[in-house]
Batch of 4 targets.
Target 1
Amino acid sequence: MATVKLIQNKDASPEVLAVFEDIRKTRGTDFINNFWRALATDPVHLKNTWHEIKSTMSGGSIDDMVKEMVYIAVSTANGCSYCIHSHTAAAKAKGMTDEQHAELMRIIGLAGKTNQLVNAMQVPVDEVFLA
Amino acid sequence: MATVKLIQNKDASPEVLAVFEDIRKTRGTDFINNFWRALATDPVHLKNTWHEIKSTMSGGSIDDMVKEMVYIAVSTANGCSYCIHSHTAAAKAKGMTDEQHAELMRIIGLAGKTNQLVNAMQVPVDEVFLA
Amino acid sequence: MATVKLIQNKDASPEVLAVFEDIRKTRGTDFINNFWRALATDPVHLKNTWHEIKSTMSGGSIDDMVKEMVYIAVSTANGCSYCIHSHTAAAKAKGMTDEQHAELMRIIGLAGKTNQLVNAMQVPVDEVFLA
Amino acid sequence: MATVKLIQNKDASPEVLAVFEDIRKTRGTDFINNFWRALATDPVHLKNTWHEIKSTMSGGSIDDMVKEMVYIAVSTANGCSYCIHSHTAAAKAKGMTDEQHAELMRIIGLAGKTNQLVNAMQVPVDEVFLA
Amino acid sequence: MATVKLIQNKDASPEVLAVFEDIRKTRGTDFINNFWRALATDPVHLKNTWHEIKSTMSGGSIDDMVKEMVYIAVSTANGCSYCIHSHTAAAKAKGMTDEQHAELMRIIGLAGKTNQLVNAMQVPVDEVFLA
Amino acid sequence: MATVKLIQNKDASPEVLAVFEDIRKTRGTDFINNFWRALATDPVHLKNTWHEIKSTMSGGSIDDMVKEMVYIAVSTANGCSYCIHSHTAAAKAKGMTDEQHAELMRIIGLAGKTNQLVNAMQVPVDEVFLA
């Protein structure tokens, strides 16, 4: 259960409905996932966050599928189950193959391991990395 | 200061020196960074971890530069300063442009934000993501 | 499922029952939530932790509702689902309005974002903050 | 050392200078801290993030000093040293007394403790919190 | 639901079945838990990770039960519910008593508290610890 | 730099000095490390936290050195540099050998890896672990 209401279409203000409409149009789907319905309890926050997602996660100099992989990586390290599910779905929708997914798991696992090792051994940053 | 000794070449066992040599050859550089010198206090761990890094971070179905970006993402969320420095250097060495670096920052920042929002609002995972 | 037993009233020692009684009296409710039933597997730990909660979360120079907001913030960043649920309920019981809750979400989300950005960019602390 | 350049005034574009000017004016100080100089490597990100900070951290239904306390709490749990320093300074500037700071430490420490306990014991969320 | 398939015996390749067989033999049980079935989507990763677990978690200079306690501690701080469940079960199977479990909870809770306090107060490392 | 004052002996109240004295006596050393000097800004918090550390970290059913290892593990996953330094020193003082330290690194690194893998793959908890 969420700690906030999940706003259904019939309870949504025109401002919220407009964002939902843009999400649908941008993604080419009728589906509005729960994150947006939860955020809709604060229409301004919903609008700004959607704008940030929309402008960040598509276009630019990094491939859209790669962006989703990075998102999965951060969400994993932050332990956000919902985010892992939704961005894994997004990465697959943008073409991530099973082989790439498996490789992503290897990198994320390895990074988790060396992150802990470096912290536990308190390895000092090499001068060359600070130049 | 590290909580373990940083093994210098003159104090390294032949087993450690062999790993160092392979790192140098693989990377085309004489430089051995502190992470490996710290791990060298446990030669078997050094050897296995180097083997894991070597086989994971190059080749396969994900671009080498992208792998470094994912590594930066995990290391940031885990708060590993050393790892952020070393893998940012590696990503740049593998061709990450300033524009791509800036975009990576946007994605990592945004993911950090929505991870917290989803956790704080305890958004339930949509059925469709579980299919 | 918990990794420890949840102690029910009929299985509780007099020492545990005394803490439960004080929780009920302090909170003006008959309800003992699962955290206390789990901790009750170690009566001394139960007693000390309850004492710490009781003396920390009420009175003093910070408003009780604000204390719950801070608790939500820490629990979110630490990814403790139970804690987010229970302290959101407590904050609401102490008067947190929907508007304040929405604003809290904005701050927590924003802090999560800039925390990641600062870590990813390894921003050095300004001299003035160290004075 | 940051992983990005810290943009000094003389190297800043007009767009960046305009944000710096608004920061100075809003805060009533000439000082621009390193976070903004690092973000200035991406002027659009700088502008949007400053706008988000400015609109979130002042006004509304939560006291400005309380907002900074929440920020300290999130930053502590996320282990962002820079953020802890800068927002502790901000909280003090907005009136946080030593007594309140000490109390904040107690809450943050206690939350960190119970977060771990709840996770380690995997306490199931009470039905009443899900209603 | 997992974001990868859980490989059942009938769908497993000979390479995967060989690892499953070694897990069963090493542990003296017929049961293969979901972690291995998920990893089996990448047989090389499965094999290497099992080898790492097998060689790390048994034998050597630290008692096997103590190793599981350390694993619980890391998994708690990283918020990995599955890992807490499986390694608590393993620790109990290796002899951890209820009293030891309760004491482990105290240490993990206390460490979580002082970790936050140290971070929030940004306590500088004493010279003597760096020697 | 700490965000609170580090209380020196000459500035300490009798209440603080009494705790310092007990720390010295208990540990058989004249040295008071910075954590206690920082906490001394809140004498009641100092006293309670010292009491908690003293009663938790010595005696009972888990070996004192093992307790320090668990503390290192939690502190690593939480990214508390100070805590890693101080508890590694404590573990060594209580007899942790270099071999045991190296093995601890392996376990912590491995746990960090599998924690991430489990989160990234969202492995469902096996029924048997919930029994």
Target 2
Amino acid sequence: MSNPAVMALLFDVFGTVVDWRGSITAEVKAFGQRHGLERDWEAFAQDWRALYQPAMEEVRSAQRGFVKLDVLHRENLDKLFVKYDIVGISEEDTDHLNRAWHRLTPWADTVPGMNRLRRRFILASMSNGNIALMVNMARYSALPWDAILGAEVARAYKPMPESYLRSCEALSLPPEQCMLVAAHNSDLEAARACGLRTAYVNRPTEYGPLQTVDFNATSDWDFIADSMIDLADKMECPL
Amino acid sequence: MSNPAVMALLFDVFGTVVDWRGSITAEVKAFGQRHGLERDWEAFAQDWRALYQPAMEEVRSAQRGFVKLDVLHRENLDKLFVKYDIVGISEEDTDHLNRAWHRLTPWADTVPGMNRLRRRFILASMSNGNIALMVNMARYSALPWDAILGAEVARAYKPMPESYLRSCEALSLPPEQCMLVAAHNSDLEAARACGLRTAYVNRPTEYGPLQTVDFNATSDWDFIADSMIDLADKMECPL
């Protein structure tokens, strides 16, 4: 590693740290079972995720002020209830389902890898998820964050430059002492443009059969790893 | 406890969670020894803390925009170098000394008590210390925060109402589901005025011989405890 030394790792979360597709699919299937509803729940989960970028785009393009991802997830869920003809669900049940995004399960290598990385580096979430979502997920899945940063602290969604730069600034570190860890080449591209270091972690099953990109690193990122444990090895973190 | 249930505990940190006076006194004494300087280091530590409120007051009164506490601590340290006739200290040494505030030691009951409290509640720092300071302190002293909130996230120093209200908002919780834990009656007073619940933890030696207030609870706070372990007992947190 060239100087200056990396001090903090900033993590993309959905897809990189946790398996949102597996978790959300399991949650919507269980929801369907509870309510006696037969639908294509795998498609429902993918559709829910597909509405994520357009919803954030309204904020990025300043068509609306900053709103938390929980709110965007809920608006998108309400749209899917219409699309999938789901009616008569109580507010409590709907809210519980919306909070499925707070109960995402990490990939098997995530927690052991992060625990090793944490011995050498500050670990912060740098997700588009809001603070409460990230706090609840961390408690649910024992993610060892030193700080919850990202969109809500920066008041800007990735890949806006402010989202990266304000996260570094929150740690009182220059961008070159921060490294984004992500499974998405485009996210790393945006971070590199802001001066951050970059680590790609391969998650080739994130989108399942629908995955079309991010089967491997498409640039010479500072680190390229197959898992968080592999990243901990490559960054020379003690066992 | 009356409804609605408390979900999150927000902690004052300097004095409540950590013994700033003991830690800073030890650091400045060691600094003096390294540099062969004989001064009244206990007075130096107290003077450093005494400059804290006036410095924040310039921000609270909008005489200047929001600046991180690390910057205020450094400005105050530079003033004390003049007052105590300390010259010729390198930038690196001065910065290291300024970061003594990142290396504060918890009271003996803090970590065991917080670990129990964390089983039932979200724990967040709600300090005037900046994010980097709080992250480094947590790593130094194994403080089990779920989130670092407080002045820098709220862009307002306590006891401004915004500092309390924006911290609750960051957790997506109404104030009545958040409880401030503090050793300072005035801090609890300000939090209660914002609708938060309140827990007083007695720290009668925080200021040593100079302590003039906060020897005990001066109001009917929701909880009154002698230590974090006592608070965990009173809040019925499992061993």
Target 3
Amino acid sequence: MSDAFDYSNLIATGLPAPAAKWTGFAKYNFIGGHNDPEGIPVEGLVASAERVLKRRGQSLATYNTDGGPLGDIELRQFLADKLQQYRGFTPSVDEILITSGSNHALTLICDSLLNAGDTAIAEEYSYAGMLGRIRGSGAELLGVKLDNEGIRPDSLKSVLEDCRSRDVTPKFLFTIPTIQNPTSTVMPVHRRREILDLTREYGVAVVEDECYADLMWDETWPDSMRAMSRSEHVIHVGSFSKYLSPALRLGYVVAPWQLLSQMLALKNDGGTSALSQMVVADFMREHYDDHVASMNTRLERKRDVLVEAVREAFGDSAKYEIPAGGIYLWLKLPDSVDTLLLERHALAEGVAFNPGSQWSVDPDNARSHLRLCFANPDESTIREGVAKLAQICSREFGLPAT
Amino acid sequence: MSDAFDYSNLIATGLPAPAAKWTGFAKYNFIGGHNDPEGIPVEGLVASAERVLKRRGQSLATYNTDGGPLGDIELRQFLADKLQQYRGFTPSVDEILITSGSNHALTLICDSLLNAGDTAIAEEYSYAGMLGRIRGSGAELLGVKLDNEGIRPDSLKSVLEDCRSRDVTPKFLFTIPTIQNPTSTVMPVHRRREILDLTREYGVAVVEDECYADLMWDETWPDSMRAMSRSEHVIHVGSFSKYLSPALRLGYVVAPWQLLSQMLALKNDGGTSALSQMVVADFMREHYDDHVASMNTRLERKRDVLVEAVREAFGDSAKYEIPAGGIYLWLKLPDSVDTLLLERHALAEGVAFNPGSQWSVDPDNARSHLRLCFANPDESTIREGVAKLAQICSREFGLPAT
């Protein structure tokens, strides 16, 4: 068109690369935090939508309905009750801020605490979104070592001491203690105590992300870190994305008003979508237990299918811990396998996974790791996809041996 | 508590003031863009929620459901059809990005186009949220004069010439041509043509915000600016907040992929809430015409009640244009009235309105203006609230004379 307008002179400098056009999900979709379509409680959501709209629909006429900018009051009340019953602590509804996914909560935490030049600490392997937020703020990002019980206290102590010697107080430690992302480990109580005491001693806040904590197959899982004594420096984050639906975009942060009021001032989005909040509050008040039990049964079966498929297809070439819950398997392949390269080949054949380097404070430290989410594909797709991935890996890197 | 943790050393510098605790809506609530509770189509939303959840509920298991990050495909299809039928142009569904309210769309536009030191132009009285976004980017904000047909071309020409003489190309002109916020005027076609030609000549994009355009009582309203020829430099923004519900947080932006791909790269929110999108798409495909007609009847009656109440209570002390649509009345009180001071007194007695200076590029230029939203209060509350406001104004400023 002769009339076309060229925006290139107007677009700002310093932006991320433009997005690519979306071409649909991969056939073998092991990426992201997608969930199981069969696990969406459609009938229950229909009933809740009808009930809550008839009861409260008119309140959609105002921003934030009638609960104010912290979020729907019934959803905050559900969360206060659930945190008391299952996670061991009892926030007031005024200490809970509903966000558009936990990613949004983490963004508000970073924006409230980090200036360029500040320092933050994360687990050596951690949620890519949060690592990106910390780096994007211009803060220095330091990693602490993990073992199969989560953060190693000796590593944390050494990082904190090193910071102190440079007269630096890190703003926070970001941890996912209950089903870590990506490693799917659970930090036991004694470790939680050590991490709490160390961070408190050094004046460092703890950001505890429990967005997978509902998806724990062993019902003896530990209370949240925020539930333990002397844990007032813990900012608690959670989500509905992993045990209900990521497309609803509902998460939350629990923090004292001193900090929450600062996050709220930065949350200039006109509120989080109220229909989702209302419907989910109504649904969860009646069905939380049943729904989570059913989701966990489903996910545990898929975990078994994936682990079996990986064992068959990769044999000794893949090292991993069996996940205690959640939706991820974290694999270490032989050092000769570059998972960023493997990703490119796999995508071309319809197999999508997350390369480890994107989930690592030091990308080089996870060049041969990858993360598989087993929640979305059905069981036969899991088996086929893993077999296909092993074939591609074998063809490109000679391992696993065929 | 002896164990309390003091976050004050950890909170970032340069933040906005912390939020105040929410204490509920004012009794006489004339602020913001709240809507009419009676106008929420509860039964229709219930039916749509049931229908769409049964048909598509399982797709909530993935981020962004099955339509990708631009937003729900059925909602984008509805918008493409609606824009064709009512606003005069036909975007492809791949040129429409669903956002969490139009405010979010405007944020993405500012973030895509503005660096610190850039220049943007807005109408002298305009949407406070956008003025804040532009200022917050560090860009210079210039105002152009309005009359009762919108932007005065002579004023725009003079601003553009002045910029050119300083070798500055403003990034965009922000305009609300169809029911301007806050003045509620409509820019006629010949003006639109002049503004389009001028901006194009100077290489300046136009951000056209049509979030009130559905609420027009005269059905001969002009097509959007984007619908006119040689308008490829127009970025079109709209919303469901004003004719359906602000609490749903649904807006959109229409732009060429060159620019939209940049906005999409900045939209790192995991997607806009999918349940609201699905339900609204289903509802609007069946009920757009009926719903908008019913909402407009309701709002026109409230406009009449407000105008009559202002005439009775303020007499010659208040100057205004009768709104041609929308939800706002923009009042000019005598110069001796400082509406920021008036606001403080009024709030203490339960009357909330928006002081003009917050809706003005030059705050001093609207010190005696105020904006009343007539959509939310019922008719008797409108009458009582306006009478109360006039009493307070009279008591504090001697006008209107009692």
Target 4
Amino acid sequence: MESEFIGWLRERLPSHPRLLLGLGDDAAVLRMSHNCVVTSDLLTEGVDFYLAECDPRRIGRKALAVNLSDLAAMGAKPVAAVVALALPRSGALELAKQLYEGLLPLADQFDTAIAGGDTNTWDGPLVISVTALGEPTERGVLTRSGAKPGDRVLVTGSLGGSILGRHFDFTPRIAEALLLQERYRLHSATDISDGLSLDLSHICEESGCGAELDLEAIPIHDDATRLAEQRGDGVTPLAHALSDGEDFELILAVPPEETERLLREKPLATPLTCIGEFVQHAGLWTRDAHGAVTPLTPRGYRHE
Amino acid sequence: MESEFIGWLRERLPSHPRLLLGLGDDAAVLRMSHNCVVTSDLLTEGVDFYLAECDPRRIGRKALAVNLSDLAAMGAKPVAAVVALALPRSGALELAKQLYEGLLPLADQFDTAIAGGDTNTWDGPLVISVTALGEPTERGVLTRSGAKPGDRVLVTGSLGGSILGRHFDFTPRIAEALLLQERYRLHSATDISDGLSLDLSHICEESGCGAELDLEAIPIHDDATRLAEQRGDGVTPLAHALSDGEDFELILAVPPEETERLLREKPLATPLTCIGEFVQHAGLWTRDAHGAVTPLTPRGYRHE
């Protein structure tokens, strides 16, 4: 299977100026200029997708997209990705092709070279592991540890209910992150993979501060409203926006004067909303219209 | 599980001058000087190991070692590795720790930073996917496509029967590859993962030439002899040396005068043996003491 698949893939893969040596050797060789930003995400049947219910192209696309979202959160430019597959034996070749058919257009869209990988069959369910390599811009990388009390909490897009489909078909915020990182002074960033409140608490922990949220300002996605209606379980659209995972939007820590400039200039097609402020005291808090502050428990997808 | 595991791993991971930003962010940042050599290997339960029969430390070690062997085959210096795991839910934390306990000493031995990864649990069997990053030396990389007719075929070590244990506990030929690459003019290299004859045929295909082997010169490992005795199935020790996979020794293409110098100077502690010659006509051939040439079918581990 593997040699036949590699033959197919060699035909399909476009040449890429970064890829000095591609498939067909013991390793690939990439042109890199200085530092390398590297991230890895592995998706499994039954946790991240059900093959019986989902077009493999969407799974392949998502496996790359979640990695590109991590590079976006670092403010890094994508360079290349490596794809390792464990395929169920039955129909393995067709499945491998479909995964790549979903993945390749996204790689092309974000100018990401596919630097080979490893293709295996086995008696288990589908596993797809992607490692993405990127490069910092001249402004360096955005980490989770740079938020300072007084910085504003900004988010891209609107949140909640991604499970209705956006968790597969989201666009990683690469273009937005690079533009913001180039034109504005950002202190910190992460992407929303586990849920707004939980990912924000990660920034707070790594930065040694807390955050107060203005709940009324949180941009709630229509999907969150639809999901709350469909389920009728009393979980509000706001609760979905605060705790649903896989929005793959960005959370940013931005100094106040820079926030003003950002909200005035509106440089993105995507909405950018100020939803609160980083504060000295640890923990997450909500602040109502009268300035009353109450603790907020971070909720979201906890990795078992 | 994942956050507890990351806490454990943060304590265990030594700092590394290449690792500008390690665990705890959306991605790691590595100091790289110019080009990046990247390779990935994924190991699965039931194909590469049986967890019930094998100490997880050996599995973790092997998952990194096979990647380092690929870097050795490229003549590249290891820089970092990224580890993605799909762990069976029951006992996941303990298993993750044991895998790393096997992997970390090897990373340390070859000065390889662990640049994070992804740790997941699921209802399936163990999958471990490692991506290794390296850097070319000043001499550039060794590819599979550089062999020229007249070059000698050299191998490190001795071959066959690795399934008796060496397929787990081999030492990747990093030190040997870097020393040879620095001091001698090598044309091509690969590592023996699928079997001597099959991996040699890959060099021939990529280089557009063939190779004649002197069967009497092939260094046969004691394990190949033991395996042939144990199995008593008529497969000779030589056949094992020619076709068993996972020796993880190097096959090199070296110009004749450089081969003479190498064999005279013996720069390695590991044996280095000339076993034949690359030739103009395609295919693999054996040459007997009288110069008679007969075709040799490449055999080894064919990836399904």
